[in-house]
Every structure is written in C-alpha cells, then in structure tokens.
C-alpha cells in the first residue's frame, strides 16, 4: 500500500513541477509555508499552546491577589511574590523553582497555588501545562510504588518536553510514599539538560500539613509574649520547619535527598488562621457569590468554627476550609 501511495505521489509531483515555472514553484512553496504559519497561529489562537499568548507572568496580578485575597499570611505572601517574580525574571534559570508550602488545613496552600497559576497561565489551574497530583488519588497503593515512580518520571519528562514552562503541584505530600518524590529528584537539580530536556523553567510546588503544629506553636508563643502576628518572621520558622518535615517518618519528604541536597528553594510556612481571618474569608466568599458582604452572617459562620488551644480559642482548627459550606446555611 505504501509503495502505491509513493508512486502516485511521485507521478503527481513530477507533473506539478512540469506544469509550474521555477517562479511558480517558489510561490507554491512560499504559500505552503505561509499556510503553515497561519494554521499554527490560528490553532494557538483558539487552543492553548506553549506560547506567550497563553503563558506570561503578570507580577501586578500576583501582587494584587496576594494582597487582597490571601488573608493572614504575611510571610507566605512576601516569599511567594519574591520567589516567583525573581524566578520568572531570570531568563536562564539554573534549576526549576521548587516551593514547599506547609501549614494546617484550610490556611490557603491550594489557594495560593491557584493564585500563582493564574498569574502565569491564562487558563490558571485549567491550563494543560499545570499538573496537580494528589497523593491519595494518584499514588494510592503502596505496592505499586515502582510503577508510580516510573510513571511520574515519564509524566514530568514528557510534559516538560512539551512545554518548558510547566507547573507541577504535589498535594498531600505528607501522605505520599517516602521515596516516590526522589524519583524526580534529578529534574529538580542543577542540570543544564538531562537527555535533551531542560527543566530549569518549570515550577514544582509541594503542599503538606507537615510542620503545621510547629508553626502554630511558634505563633502561639508570639501571642503569649504579647507580640503581634506580623512580627513573626521566616527566620523564626524556617529551620524547625525543614527539620520537622525531614524527620516525619510518614511523610513524602522523609529523609529525602531533596532536602539533603537543598533542592527545595523555599519552605513556606502558613500560619494558623484567627477568628478575624475566618470572618474575612466569609466576607470574600459572599462577594464572590455576588452578594453584599454581611458582617453579621460572617460572624455567625466564624463562630461555628472550632478554635484551639481550647483555653484561648485562638486559631481555627480547619482554617477557612468549611466557610463555603457553612455559608450556605445562612444565605
Ligand atoms: N489564608 C486564606 N486567605 C483567603 N482564603 C483562604 C485562606 N485560607 C483558606 N482560604 C479559603 O479556604 C479554601 C480552602 O483553603 P485551601 O484549600 O487553600 O486550604 P489548604 O491549606 O490547601 O488545606 P489542606 O491542608 O486541607 O489541603 C480556599 O479555597 C479559600 O477560599
Ligand atoms: Mg490543600
């Protein structure tokens, strides 16, 4: 069959060349080339592709969103703005950007990942260049760890080959099998390229609750010492954070060479949220639903949360996580 097609093609081609003058041939080739470019740009017009039309960093948007939409996370907010904008400014980064976000449930880790994605990809989290892995969903079975390692490597390599500016989010790192993450370690390291693929422009974000208790403890100590929340600095948290993460036997980071080799660029603490932040979340949620924000309703939602420690009732134990559902009862 193949030879037939070739033969027909040759016949057609030679008769075409005969029919066209040299000038005609040039025009024909030119027309084909122009059509190619047009088709490509048309398809990029309608479909997302790895081009600046679809991927370009908007620092103003990130800054505005962090300032206005993320509550109570002054440390995370400033590190993320600096880390992401520094990385995106660098035309030739030596390694991918690797962020590890830590804190109690409902404090904004997924939310921030979404804000980062929205500042880079036109389609935000829906972009085909943004990949979200959830340990309990994608890497569920312990006995399949070897398969997962191979799949993960392939998936990451394939996608970065497709688009250098890819983003990978690993959710629930604390429930990930220790060791799995080591399988992508080479990609996070300082290599110009590995087998012809360079990973330097990609972003990796790890999310976990690990270290959350230590962060909350430090926050509480500040409060007990009469200091304001905003006085807490990264230095107060960073060391205990990376240590507790490293030594957590059950977490995906346990003794991983990712930490040994300093491949994580930033450990980012998320502080536990206070009553007032929960109120802010409720107000923001009403606004997002095109309702007039109502402080009374927000107060009622916030009062339903459980706060710890029991005595002081300072920090919402589920952050803002259930605000959206609770709100449904009042509106
Ligand atoms: N600091 C915050 N500022 C504003 N909104 C927040 C904040 N934290 C949480 N929220 C709201 O609560 C929702 C749930 O938070 P998110 O999913 O980001 O929590 P998480 O830190 O990823 O928790 P988990 O550890 O359980 O995964 C968000 O979609 C957002 O609407
Ligand atoms: Mg989350």
UniProtKB/TrEMBL annotation:
Taxonomic superkingdom: Eukaryota
Pfam families, alphabetized: TOR1A_C, Torsin
Secretion signal span: 1-19
Residues in Torsin-1A C-terminal domain copies: 273-330
Entry-linked InterPro entries: P-loop_NTPase, TOR1A_C, Torsin, Torsin_1/2
Locations listed in the record: Endoplasmic reticulum lumen
A GO cellular component entry from the record: endoplasmic reticulum lumen
Keywords, alphabetical: ATP-binding, Endoplasmic reticulum, Glycoprotein, Nucleotide-binding, Signal
Protein name: Torsin
Annotated organism of origin: Poecilia reticulata
